[in-house]
Write a structure and sequence with these properties.
The protein is an alpha+beta fold. The protein has five helices and seven strands. The strands form two sheets. It has a five-stranded antiparallel sheet. Strands 1-4 form a two-stranded antiparallel ribbon. It is elongated. The chain starts with 10 loop residues before the first strand and ends with a helix.
Length: about 130
């Protein structure tokens, strides 16, 4: 499936997100748009809002934030290289994702100071603290 480069072509936002492979199912894309995780040109929109070439789409996936510019239109899901041709990520978005990645790597993992199950001594100390002993 070849994406369209015609500037007059339009497609639903949820279909475009699915075709661009940001979401595995179109239903997930629709729920993300309804939930406010997607903005089109800085505005919260409905899933049926039409996307055209040149539009800016802000996408929040878990902890990751993407800001992409629409470069092609497709209403059918194609291969990954075709999907990557549908958008171009902004330089600010790439820099922000890289800094988030570095921060996550440097941060201590949750529970790193815990060393497994408490020992008998630890249980006694916890019991004294809670008033059991």
């Amino acid at each position: 499936m070849k994406p369209s480069d015609n500037p007059d072509d339009r497609v639903r936002l949820d279909k475009w997100l699915w075709a661009a492979r940001f979401y595995k199912h179109r239903t997930l894309a629709t729920e993300a748009v309804d939930g406010g995780k997607i903005q089109l040109n800085g505005i919260r929109v409905k899933p049926a809002k039409e996307v055209k070439i040149g539009d800016t789409v802000d996408i929040q996936l878990a902890e990751t934030h993407f800001k992409v510019v629409v470069k092609g239109i497709a209403d059918k899901r194609g291969s990954a290289p075709v999907a990557q041709g549908l958008y171009e990520e902004t330089a600010d978005s790439i820099a922000a994702r890289e800094s988030q990645k570095e921060q996550r790597q440097l941060a201590a993992t949750p529970g790193a100071d815990l060393h497994g199950r408490p020992t008998k001594r630890d249980r006694r100390q916890m019991g004294r603290f809670t008033g059991e002993y």
